[in-house]
Amino acid sequence: MTQIKKSFVDFLPFHIGNLVAKLPIIQGGMGVGISLSGLASAVAKEGGIGVISAACIGRTPRYESRKISDEQALAEDIQRARKLSAGVIGVNIMVALTNFESLCRTASQQGADIIFAGAGLPLALPSFIDKDSKTKLVPIVSSGKAATMIARWWKEKYHRLPDAFVAEGPMAGGHLGFKSSQIHDPDYTLDKILPDVCAVAGELSQSGDVHIPVIAAGGIFSGDDINRYLELGAEAVQMGTRFVATTECDAPDSFKQSYVDSKQEDILIVQSPVGMPGRALKNSFIKKMEQGETSPVSCRYHCITSCKRSKSAYCIADALLRSLSGNAQEGLIFVGTNAWRIQKVQSVRELIKELKDEYLQARRSNTPVFESLESI
Questions:
Q1: Which residues are CB-contacts of 325 (< 8 A; sequence separation ≥ 6)?
Q2: CA 213 to CA 221: how far, in whole Å?
Q3: Domains, the chain, ranges and CATH?
Q4: Quick one: which of 57, 81, 125, 173 could link to 37 by a disulfide (CB 3.0–4.6 Å)?
Q5: 39: Cβ–Cβ under 8 A, 6 or more apart, which residues?
Q6: pLDDT confidence of 107, banded at 50, 70, 90?
């Protein structure tokens, strides 16, 4: 029996309909002001999918002095990303935003390749997009049940299906689509959620004669993680935290350094005014909040439909924007569960190379070096 040495290929391209990214890596959308056109274009230039966060984008330092709307700021940021990269550019828009509809319309009209919609069920999303729009619509879900619900509603009301799903587990950063009691429950891990969402996507693909890929998200940190979730059925992964500590990230240096300096015990779950738990980094602001030293404020932004303003100890928009002021200790810093593992700030290109090397090493470790010609 003749044996040959097995070859190992680099990442395979990622397809959403007729849209193709050279790498199966999506940079997660991170607000407020963390992932704008700078980071998104850098990721897209390297072959991944770069994502601009639309949350309160008009209030970020880049646009605040001009007093423009979130919609105008988003339009300008998409245009800027297009000038910087010819790659795939997406926009992350939270369903819970009070201007969700107008931001979706803006993203589509400006030619965003993809709209990623989470923090709620985007049941009406297709109605905000022109029928001839080429923008792909990708809901972010935390269960197969949610994926089924969205798909059935879209098919019945709009005669279309999602172009892909992001299956996000509870180890993600920022607002989480889980109850606090579910975050550390083994029945709600990404490993449990992903196969269910893949099964739903598979059934929908067969019934609709289309291919609906699934993207794994939430706590994915290394090339080994990428290999793991691709083997579990995902066709791509979404990574947010890893891209914060890059030179191209739109956050200030103090924000990036807080990730580098963080320890595992610094990462905790906080209750957000929007009614969801969130994963954040312990700092001066969190300590003041825990000690009852923060107080309710008047709402200047009216940004989130579910915000419990009268009962809240702080304004989520103010807290997130303060972390961009140069003193990250005095604002809210959202992080993924593995932020403490980041050791340095590096370029997006260096990070992508590191992930590729780790992925290939994982492939070599998990695959026999030799196989017979008969099996090929």
A1: 61, 252, 331
A2: 21
A3: 3-251+342-366 (3.20.20.70), 254-330 (no CATH)
A4: 81
A5: 27, 50, 243, 246, 248, 249, 250, 348
A6: very high
Sort 40 into a burial class: Cβ within 10 Å, 0-12 / 13-18 / 19+: buried
Residue 131, Cβ density class (10 Å: 0-12 exposed, 13-18 middle, ≥19 buried)? exposed
Beta partners for 304?
97
Enter the pTM of the model: 0.90
Residue 217 tokens read as 């998200």
Contact 334, 174 (CB under 8 A): yes
Which pair of tokens denotes residue 131? 């029928």
Q: How far is CA 159 from CA 15, 125, 131, 155, in A?
A: 22, 13, 11, 4
Contact 47, 27 (CB under 8 A): no
Following DSSP, what letter does each residue of 116-161 receive, concatenated? EEESS--TTGGGGS-TT---EEEEEESSHHHHHHHHHHHHHHHS--
CA neighbor of 349 nearest in space, from 1, 16, 25: 25
Question: Nearest CA to 359 among 117, 24, 126, 55?
Answer: 24
Place of tokens 């929007």: 274
In the chain, DSSP assigns E strands to 3-5, 14-16, 19-21, 25-27, 49-53, 88-94, 114-118, 136-141, 165-168, 174-175, 214-217, 236-239, 267-271, 277-281, 370-372
How many angstroms separate the first and last alpha carbons of the chain?
Answer: 13
Q: Are 150 and 124 in contact (CB under 8 A)?
A: no
Q: Which two tokens stand for residue 212?
A: 């609906």
Distance separating alpha carbons of residues 354 and 10, to the nearest angstrom = 12
What percentage of the chain has pLDDT greater than the value 70? 89
pLDDT confidence tier of residue 250, bands split at 50, 70 and 90: very high
